[in-house]
Amino acid sequence: MPDDMTRAAHRALVDRILNGEGRAAAQQRAHAFGNDGLSPPLDTLISKVATRPAQVTEADFAAAKALGLSEDQLFELVICAAVGQSARLYEAGLAALAEATVNGEAG
C-alpha cells in the first residue's frame, strides 16, 4: 500500500487541479476532471484525452477553441482530464490491492 506521503501528494495534486488558481473556471475543471457534464464539442476533446488520447486531433482542439476558450484554459482542462483519469485508475488500483490483501489474509 502507498505510504501516507504518497497519498498526501496525490491529494495535494488533485486539490491543486480542482481548487487552485487557474484560467479555466473551477466548475469546468471539475467537469473535465470527472469527464462528465461538459457540452459539445468540449466533451469530445476531454473524453478523448481521458480515454483515447492517441485519437485527439487538431480538429478537436480547434472545435473546443471555437467555443471561445483560450489556449491556457484548454491546457488546464486537458490536464484536469488526464489527472482525473489517472486518479480514477490510481484509486481503482488501491481498491483492488486492498481487496486482494484482505482476501489473501482471509484465505
Cα gyration radius (Å): 16 Å
The residue ranges in which pLDDT falls below 50 over 5 or more consecutive positions are: none
Helix-strand pattern: HHHHH
Tell me the structural class: mainly alpha
Shape: elongated
Largest sheet: none
Q: Could you tell me the mean pLDDT?
A: 93
Distance between the termini: 19 Å
What proportion of the residues form beta strands (DSSP E)?
under 5%
The tally of structural domains comes to: 1
- H/I helix tally: 5
- Tell me the number of strands: 0
Helical amount: over 70%
Secondary structure elements and their pairing?
Elements: H1 4-19, H2 26-34, H3 42-51, H4 58-65, H5 71-106
Helix pairs in contact: 1-5, 2-5, 3-5
Summarize the structure.
This protein is an all-alpha fold. It has helices at 4-19, 26-34, 42-51, 58-65, 71-106.
What does this structure look like?
This is Carboxymuconolactone decarboxylase family protein. It comes from Micromonospora cremea. By secondary structure, the protein is mostly helical. It has one domain. It has helices spanning 4-19, 26-34, 42-51, 58-65, 71-106. Helix 1 (4-19) packs antiparallel against helix 5 (71-106) and helix 3 (42-51) crosses helix 5 (71-106). It is elongated and about 55 Å long. It starts with a helix and ends with a helix. The model has no long low-confidence stretch (mean pLDDT 93).
